[in-house]
Predict the 3D structure of the following.
Amino acid sequence: MKNVFISSDNIITSLGFTTEENITKIKNNKTGIYNIEDKELSPSAFHASLINTDELNSKFNSINSSNNFTRFEKLSILSIKDALSKTTVDIKNKKTLFILSTTKGNIDLLEEKNKMIFGENRLYLSNTAKLIHEYFGSPNQPVVISNACISGVLAIIIGSRLIRSGQFENVVITGTDIVSKFVVSGFISFQSLSSGPCRPFDVSRDGLSLGEGCGTIILTSNKNYLSRQTEVIVGGGFSSNDANHISGPSRTGEGLLLAINKTIEDTESDYSKNIDYISAHGTATPYNDEMESVAITRAGLNEVPVNSFKGYWGHTLGAAGIIESIDGIYSLRNDFLFKTAGFSEIGVTNKINVIDKHEERQINNCLKIASGFGGCNAGVIFHKL
Amino acid sequence: MSEQLIISNYCKIADNTVSLNGKLIFKCDIEKKFPEFIKEAYKNFQINYPKFFKMDSLSKLGFLTAEMIIKKENPVGNFKNEDVSIIITNSSSSLDTDIEYSKTINDADNYFPSPSVFVYTLPNIMIGEICIKNKINGENTFFISEKFDIDFLYKYVSNIFETNKTQCCIFGRVELMGEKYESVLYLVKKAKDCINTNESVIFEPENIKKLYIS
């Protein structure tokens, strides 16, 4: 089977504008989640990780002086530009596809003040994707995936399938979501926001913290586009549905278990048998984390070190699967596991092995999982060559 | 050469009509708005599923389109639940419901966000509704593109069959925005799993297009 390599990546969150900046902050145990009092976003205070607007604008102005880009588009463009600067993969090549992963795109254009500036056209995700791909001169029609919180993992699965099937040689995948009044009010109405920075898998966890994020990952089958000492490839992947409830995860973990088992089945057995690290969804809602612990245990992986990155930069929705996969790939390349910020005492019924301190440890195979509204689940494996 | 795939049943809902495999099976006054039309169609086909009334318009449309096919041929039973997949696309995502939801938060004096509306502000909730009713556990993906990108999706669906990710796929486009709506879903499976191939159509871009515009 054709190998699908990771050629380059970028992460933008409140912790920084490059993968390296984010990793350095995480290593130093910094969290980007703070108490936010902003009437433009919510009548009541809430905890979230927000990207500094002045910094975003100043970074963006240094590459483009036009004012005609939304917050969502600026983040996506900056992220793609940084990822492209670290690879020889050409986004203008006919063999390169652009995939956008997002749950809500430019949803802030539903607010009158933004609608007046940018119009309503870019509320349509295909128009947003088109604008970004035209900015970079990408020749192929972009693909947009909007499948709740599994969008990012799904985009990596689909991107790697499109390379393996020979349709494309390279795929540039960007996942972005902003924190808007729309999303904040919705999660508050669900009573799923945390009272402080979120605490994945912890006994005192009480909800998720939202986060703004953007990530780009560039996949390729062409070894000429690789430049690192240690290369990582994408293994198998699978998405599934609980068929249980549209807004609550299944208590039995059945759907996620199916995604994990099928992901393992879809991956060459010499490394799928030896998963030595799991990057969980770990939103820190009572139900999600409980469900994940059940599925991980039922898959026989309860002793494998597992972490969640949500305590550093919150739940970044359509970006989460991308930026958390990039962290997992960093862990593979550097034999370094990150602790779960906000976690101190196990608070799920099934005693999974939550990483509670940064640790140097040799690892070769990482399983990334995600679950979302609509009962969807997904898994993907990354393997170090 | 990969195994031949066929479309065994397909359903189209547009212009206040429901057609199954090209035959008109229900229509109502064109003057009626979507909510009335879809309610009448639901009653006409005697689908006893009270959760239907809680769904947003987009989910109702996708759910009913899928239900027409499944009443004719239920893939669960013939295939393992995990081998049935759902791949749906549209242009407007859940924007119709997004706008409705935003009306509940835009006015500070009239701020009443509702979780039961918010949950439908994701297009893949429709896939979840179809899965829940029919116990479908396989792959699910929601793609967004301005037009029905038949060539891309044909290749993608063929690929998940070729690589054994699925044995049966409910595939198509479900679009709804304001007063405009249109849906078409196809049941795709391997020719060898089809007992009576007389009425079935080969799964290929020309046929997908032909059935879509007919």
About this structure: The domain at 235-384 of chain A is CATH 3.40.47.10 (Peroxisomal Thiolase; Chain A, domain 1). The first strand of chain A starts at residue 5 and ends at 12. Chain A has twelve helices and 16 strands. The CA atoms of residues 305 and 353 of chain A lie 5 Å apart.
